[in-house]
Amino acid sequence: MKIFSASQLQKADKISIDNQGITSEELMERAATRAFNEIENILDENKTVKLFCGIGNNGGDGLVIARLLKNSGHKAQVYAVNYSDKRSNDFLANNQKLEKMGLKPIVLKAEEDFPKISAEDIVIDAIFGIGLNRGIKGWPAKLVHHINHSGAFTIAIDMPSGLFSDQVPSENDAVIKADLCLTFQGPKLVFFLPQTMDYVNEFKVIDIGLDKQYLESLDSSYEITGRLEAAAIYKPRKKNTHKGNFGHTLIVGGSYGKIGSVILTAKTALKSGAGLCTLYIPKCGYIPAQTAIPEVMVLTDEGEEKLSEIEFDLEPDVICFGMGTGKDLVTKEAFGRLLERTKKPMLVDADGLNILSENKELLESVPKNSVLTPHPKELQRLIGEWKDDFDKVNKVKSFVKKYNLIIVLKGAYTFVFSGEKVFINISGNSGMATAGSGDVLSGVITALLSQGYSPENAARFGVYLHGKAGDLASADIGAEGMISGDIANYMGRAFKTLI
Ligand SMILES: NC(=O)C1=CN([C@@H]2O[C@H](COP(=O)(O)OP(=O)(O)OC[C@H]3O[C@@H](n4cnc5c(N)ncnc54)[C@H](OP(=O)(O)O)[C@@H]3O)[C@@H](O)[C@H]2O)[C@@H](O)CC1
Ligand SMILES: [K+]
């Protein structure tokens, strides 16, 4: 699913009206009716719904929803938030319809007009949508705070009011905190950025039937990776195969006290379909690794406690480097030599990334199309500071183009940057914020690379599977109870959800 900008949606709105031979009021009726159906599904009939409607088209949507609520016997109170006198035509048309039914909106013009909102009420926020073009100021800002402090379950229509679709609000801007956002046609980028995602606890996309052909023709850098997209990437196994078909993965990492990290990566690689897996670790890890996973082969470095040479006599399909290696000079130099020798795309994580950050000249030697999997701190060391999340996204886009790499930026929503594209993953949960979760992710992506998935698909699909396995683990054993090894253990079931 593509993510569109506000201006793309506004244009799609106009084109759909022309192509479908409908009026904008009819499109509003359709959009708001579909939003109303969602609201009605979750509405307890004893609840009072308080609708706050702006005077533009977002407010118009609110008025349609108010009419439909009233028609189906719900308790609805409607407030027109009179932040300006420039009412839109479709607002006016729907205001008239509502008045004819005897439901005249109460006009709010100052703080004294604010109604009481109890925590038991349901609030519909239809003050501003994608037409917001400046921060909310004055008494409307106070109204936003009044709603946020009420404790009422708040449903935002299209966008939480005050949230821009293409910039981070400034510190003093008032923004609705929505428990649920019913958003039209597609999710907005700000729903996924760390600085703005908290304004949208949950969102649901309402298909309002905009022109499909036109939407498909639109360019967008941003795409969602959900179940459908993951299933399209998945290549189920053929019957007549052997372990050689699924590649040989070499996982290089570990140091004294951090052998567990590479063990987790290797275990996950095997549980994600890698045909063969060899671990290359310092000598001290030999017995623990052999004991922990009998299915893995183990090679040891000359170094007792850390990697110092990285020499091996095999031709892996993919190399994964960096978990638990530390950043010692001998390890850095061995990594540098490994990069020089390696031609196929590899995966670099954790201390591998830290070594690259401290020795930027090594970035030139990382094989093209390799996958780097930083968390935000590792990213910052790699690319420097950013002003805000939009700046960060642009900086990462430039970085991946400059070095021809793929970046997997880990977070509540993990972003995969590849060329011009940014894929936003929607599987996963807070239980995955646990030690070793990143080592597991490296294992899945490496295993997919070894099975012949392209680096972009391996990154995108791996991130999805990792999140899905986490969701299955969390459903069974709870977010607090799960550890990284559980994510690895649920990997097979994550694949099965796609069949
Ligand atoms: N496109 C679609 O697919 C469909 C869209 N639909 C709905 O329309 C919504 C967009 O409606 P919209 O364009 O009328 O803008 P909206 O958000 O109501 O704002 C109204 C006006 O407020 C003003 N203004 C802005 N910021 C301000 C501020 N801080 N403080 C004070 N004033 C401010 C600004 O006017 P200005 O004052 O700048 O002239 C702006 O024009 C969309 O979110 C969806 O709900 C559906 O019905 C059908 C399909
Ligand atoms: K809104």
TrEMBL record:
It holds the Pfam family Carb_kinase. It comes from the Bacteria. Residues 226-498 form the YjeF C-terminal domain. Keywords: ATP-binding, Isomerase, Lyase, Metal-binding, Multifunctional enzyme, NAD, NADP, Nucleotide-binding, Potassium. InterPro entries: Carbohydrate_kinase_pred_CS (IPR017953), CARKD (IPR000631), Nnr (IPR030677), Ribokinase-like (IPR029056), YjeF_N_dom (IPR004443), YjeF_N_dom_sf (IPR036652). (6S)-NADPHX binds at residues 57-61, 129-135, 158, 324, 375, 439. It catalyses: (6R)-NADHX = (6S)-NADHX; (6S)-NADHX + ADP = AMP + phosphate + NADH + H(+); (6R)-NADPHX = (6S)-NADPHX; (6S)-NADPHX + ADP = AMP + phosphate + NADPH + H(+). Residues 9-216 form the YjeF N-terminal domain. Binds 1 potassium ion per subunit. K(+) binds at N58, D125, S161. Its cofactor is Mg(2+); K(+). Its EC number is 4.2.1.136, 5.1.99.6. AMP binds at K410, G411, A412, Y413, T414, G438. NCBIfam families: yjeF_cterm (TIGR00196), yjeF_nterm (TIGR00197). Homotetramer. Bifunctional enzyme that catalyzes the epimerization of the S- and R-forms of NAD(P)HX and the dehydration of the S-form of NAD(P)HX at the expense of ADP, which is converted to AMP. This allows the repair of both epimers of NAD(P)HX, a damaged form of NAD(P)H that is a result of enzymatic or heat-dependent hydration. Belongs to the NnrD/CARKD family. In the N-terminal section; belongs to the NnrE/AIBP family. This is Bifunctional NAD(P)H-hydrate repair enzyme. It comes from Salegentibacter chungangensis.
